[in-house]
Amino acid sequence: MIEIHRNDSVDETPAEAPTPGFHVTVNKPKTRHLKQLIKTNGQSRTLLRFGAVVLVLSVLLSLISPLLIRRLVDQFRHGVDWRLLIAIGALMIGSTALAAWGNYLFSAAGLAIVQETQNQTLAKILAKPVAFFDQTPSGQLTSRLTNNLDQIKNYYTAGYPSLISGIVTIIGAVGMLVYMNGILTLLLVGALLIMYGLLSGLANQLGAPMDAFLDEAGHYTAGITEAFANIRLIKANTAEHQITAASQDQTAAMRREGLRVAKVMSRMQPIMSTILLLILGGTLAVGGYFVSTNRMTNGTLISFLVLVIQVANPMLNFSSYSASQKEADSAAKNLLAQLAAAGEDDSPKETKLLTTQLQHQPLALHQVSLDYGNGHGVHDLDLTLIPNQLYALVGPSGAGKSTLMAVLERFYTPTSGTLQVGDTPAACFALTAWRQHLAYVPQTSEVLSGTYRAYLQLAAPQASDADLNQALAAVQLTDFIASLPAGLDSQIAEAGTNMSGGQKQRLTIAQALLKKADIYLFDEITANLDADSEAIIRDLIRQLAATHTVLAAAHRLSSIRDADQVIVLENGRITGQGTPAELLTRNTTYARFVQEQSLT
Ligand SMILES: Nc1ncnc2c1ncn2[C@@H]1O[C@H](COP(=O)(O)OP(=O)(O)OP(=O)(O)O)[C@@H](O)[C@H]1O
Ligand SMILES: [Mg+2]
């Protein structure tokens, strides 16, 4: 068969990236992507092969029974042949048991593929750069991933085994039918082919609405996931109805696409039943005629009918199997695209030198710019951070302070310029190793759900209880943890809703302290603290800076008043750097901040 189709997909795997434009493909298998997906899963391949053998055996057994039925019926006038009857029963039981076993093996294979793909894709998605997550709503990502995996699982558990047993049944049964009565078979095959054409025409109409449905489902999930996660914001603004209204567009679209699918599906079932009835009726009529004219025995007619039923079932369902195959293959294509997509660069690189370099050599930015693609970000930064110094980062909101920290964490690759340690560009060091040497407390006090212990040990899994308690004491959380019913083993709620803002912030500071990094990046970590707690954190930062490089962004100048150096950022550019005293005379923005906060 020659198919001509347009190829302008963007998420094709690079290994097989076709040239854009029109293609002529000769008998291209529809399972190319599925095959590629299971290529690496040896266990599932073995299960699939074994399952196929078992299913074929089951079909062959089931095909023998009509022949025995014919003999049984033709010998009825001499009495019932009990041995033959028992043999037929045994064959049916055997074939059913084998079919069940075969189906189970296919399901096991499907689940093995899904499990491995789940693990691989999660690892790959987590390895994607931060910019990817900036652009993709997390709910949509989750929804697409789950749908794709479901389609693959459904195909291997239902579609694929039916396809294999269907093909074997059709070939075997048609062979036997021809052997029994050529003319009748010819009529039958003709009718079945017409019916298959009709149904696959209908099945082809399912693709577009199914895709549109999944797309809308993705948007819907994304919207509601975000709403559930930020329920306080929504309730405070009494915006519940807005969320419902916004999701109504998607639910309406899902209903619309669902109806398009239903329109096709609802036609398929009755068409199938009517055609089946016609075929059975036709076979009976023609067969009855042959029997009455003594050209066929009663037994042949009955076994012919049994075979017709056996062959009609897979024929009728063929179009839905091939639809499920198409779906699974395009799901596999999507997953492969995820697997092939570039992650953050983390090829093995120099790591040994990193510790000594970061401890003894300055971390420097040379003409570094990072544009988020919207003109915002930081521009032409020249900055040198010397070890064991405390740097304060000040500047108006939106000036680029958090962006500078993101550049240092290597969350984004600078648009231009270089980040380096001593003379070595940061890009020479593996990202994971790099990030292990930096501790970063982000501006928004995000925490992860789970136990307090697990959260604290996130970056320092080996930390002992004594270490944890020491870090908690440093941020004044000892009493809070002691007051919890299960202490360190108590649970943090999702997004830390069972803690105060300041407690969340201090817990994350404790986590950073446990990391034992060389460089500490603190983004507005005192924003949620009272004056007493602020003083404690300020002293903590000062102590830390005696042996580490510390960069602390703060609007509240009181919390960074003992900084060795202050860096002023405005509109993404450094407009001043020096000791607090120097800047007071040299930088008008800093001087204004000091004055506004009446700090002298
Ligand atoms: N992920 C992003 N995508 C696009 N633009 C961004 C992104 N993050 C920040 N920006 C833009 O970059 C600029 C700098 O933002 P940044 O968060 O670095 O400011 P900031 O100095 O930390 O401000 P604040 O004091 O309010 O925390 C802003 O104009 C902001 O809108
Ligand atoms: Mg910020």
Q: What ligands are attached or bound here?
A: adenosine-5'-triphosphate, magnesium ion
CATH homology superfamily name of the largest domain: ABC transporter type 1, transmembrane domain
CATH class of the largest domain, please?
Mainly Alpha
Alpha carbon gap, first and last residue: 84 Å
The CATH topology of the largest domain is given as ABC transporter transmembrane region fold
* Class of secondary structure makeup: alpha/beta
Question: Mind telling me the C-alpha Rg?
Answer: 35 Å
Number of helices: 20
User: How can the largest sheet be summarized?
Assistant: 6 strands, mixed
Poorly predicted ranges: 1-28
CATH architecture of the largest domain: Up-down Bundle
Q: Based on DSSP secondary structure assignment, what is the total number of beta strands?
A: 14
Return the domain count: 3
Structural shape:
elongated
Query: How much of the sequence is in beta strands?
Result: 5-15%
Q: What topology, given as strand order, has the largest sheet?
A: 8-11-12-5-13-14
